[in-house]
Amino acid sequence: MSIIYLSPVRSEGEGPSPAALAAIDSEWPLIAAELDLLDAQIAFINAGPYASVLDRRRVRRAERRVLEVSRELADQETAEDGAA
Predict the structure, then answer these.
(1) Is 52 left (phi over 0), alpha (psi -120 to 50) or beta?
(2) Please, what is the end-to-end C-alpha distance for the chain in angstroms?
(3) Is residue 9, in this structure, part of any structural domain at all?
(4) In a domain, 8, yes or no
């Protein structure tokens, strides 16, 4: 998983560069999958001793989705590096 570095916003009112926005846009499926995983984990923790099998299944599915999206992004980066 890569971390996107965004430079501080300049005082002239400029926002992130188009390249930074494109990088965020390309990684958005991973961000969304990680947010879903976080939601599932919070629900599981809040259920405490009353957590059901379905709560655990939701966490496992969200974990699997994060891995799938990560793999897809890595494959895209590898393909782009190979084409360059």
Answers:
(1) beta
(2) 21
(3) no
(4) no
